[in-house]
Write a structure and sequence with these properties.
heterodimer, A: alpha/beta, 12 strands, about 30% helix, B: Rossmann fold, 2 domains, 8-stranded mixed beta sheet, globular
Amino acid sequence: MSDETLLRVRGVTTVFDTPQGRLTAVDGVSFDLGAHESLGVVGESGSGKTVLSRTIMGLQPRRGVAVTGSVRLNGTEVVGASEEAKRELWGRQVAMVFQDPMTSLNPVVKVGKQIDEVLRVRLGMDRAAARARAIELLEMVGIPAAATRYGAYPHSLSGGMRQRVVVAIALAGSPQLLLADEPTTGLDVTIQAQILNLLDEVQGRLGMSMILVTHDLGVVATRTSRLVVMYAGRVVETGTTRDVFARHRMPYTRALLESSPKISNPSHTRLAAIPGRPPNLLDLPAGCAFAPRCAYATDRCRSERPVLEPADEPGHLFACFNPLPVAAGGPS
Amino acid sequence: MTEPLLSVRGLSVTFGPRSRRVSAVDGVSFDVAAGETLGLVGESGCGKSTTGRALMRIVEPTAGTVSLEGADLTAASGRALRERRTAMQMIFQDPISSLNPRRRARDIVAEPLDCWKRAAGEERRRIVDGLLAQVGIDPVAYGDRYARQFSGGQCQRISIARALAMRPKLLICDEVVSALDVSVQAQILNLLEDLKAEYGLTLLFIAHDLAVVKNISDRVAVMYLGRLCEIGPADALYDAPAHPYTTFLLGAALEADPEAPRRGEVLEGEPPSPLDPPSGCRFRTRCPYATERCATETPELREVARGHQVACHFPLTITRRGGAPD
């Protein structure tokens, strides 16, 4: 971990005004991210992980959303920044890779031109220099025959190739922070492995920090140094990836880990399913949001919200009144 | 194996006109024994879903036979086909669009009974309530709710109850958990295991997720570009894959364990187009072990260990298994 903090997130809360009422998608999230560090944000649908990454990026609709708290990227405040100020950050300081490479590319513009745009608008390159650099970027993300593919339209590329183009666009401005929101969901396993290896490699080569947002614990297990586990908009546990996997204290973290089938287990291993389903954010329980599904919940859990408290290991925090005992060798 | 419940021989499905013919499934043969779960795994476009649909004749096979309990389904037509097909039921990937949002849970589950006039009145109600309760939907509290009022996981439970209404012998599950959150996915997988034991069901479980397939299957079949690469007992196949493609597929799978070693090399490139599949072995264009022979001669499935068959001229030797308990 680096002592140099690139991103400082403090008490970030994102509230949407919906016809059904106020919906708190992200509720008081705080964490730091050092330079060259990679952080995983995991949670199920509705946990607020995607809204959090968009809030960090400063991407919100103009109306119907209120963001409070602070997001400082390299000392610049993102929350409440003007569109002009955010445009200065986008591309050069922070860039994003979205889930669906089909919809994040413009279908009627050649892929090379979509990379050029960043280079010319953000970095002020001239046409020839931008073209040369765009081809270089396409080569860097592993697209064969890059000079030919420069003139290809997105529809003629496969899903994996399109996601490589999206990564190339994100890298064009040499950002210090790359936000990848479910970058491999919807891709086949062999292609997923290619894209994750690519992200690993460019992160190392360019010395970027990365936030990997995903529902898949397999994606973050070996690719991140720290984890944030979210449930119903809040951080319920955070720590080094190893600590969260092996020495987690929050019952939800354990439930999430144990409910996913593992290749290393023999077939017909009974899964420890979590009863019920993720809560409705419009109608959250008063206490801990996980209490209705938790085997250890008490009256206190149902009436009072637990806050993050330190565990034994440095940087390891959990929000639970009845934490799991510290496992000797780590639970299976 | 005794007389298999389902026997598939040389199943092929092609789409499109002669000039742009897509060979989606090409000469697939396998058996599923009664009471067994066969997992069918592969990447998108490998033909696993088309295989499932062709068994039901939702898409017409262009060649091959499908027999259920010895009776050939490919030869039947009209009412005879429909009647025979009630013994096989299918559950689909998207639970929400599988159900009519404007119908009540109870009526959705009763529809197969109504179609075949199997039960009416009090008996119909008793069967439907029993099925709903069995899949974990309280019939008293939720039976009269509309499909649109249920979450994805609950809709999948109702789809399962509907599929069970005809007391089928074979359940074809096509990516039934891939749209669900992990916590709900585990509930549905456990439910299928319980129902299988209770009703003595036979399952064909089609999915892309290797961990999910291993968890639920007794045997696993791996498909690539319309053909079977390998088929064998789940644990043996995952421990010691014999087909190079299976090795790459397993090597690319991510395990939710930070201590897990990064396994294997990453497979380069992408599958070729099924419009113009490679000659011989369809994996040869990406296979590091491919030789001249792979281009000219199509490998047939052959046995490498008991019940473990592989379609490869140069199967990987089973050495890694060592003295591991079987």
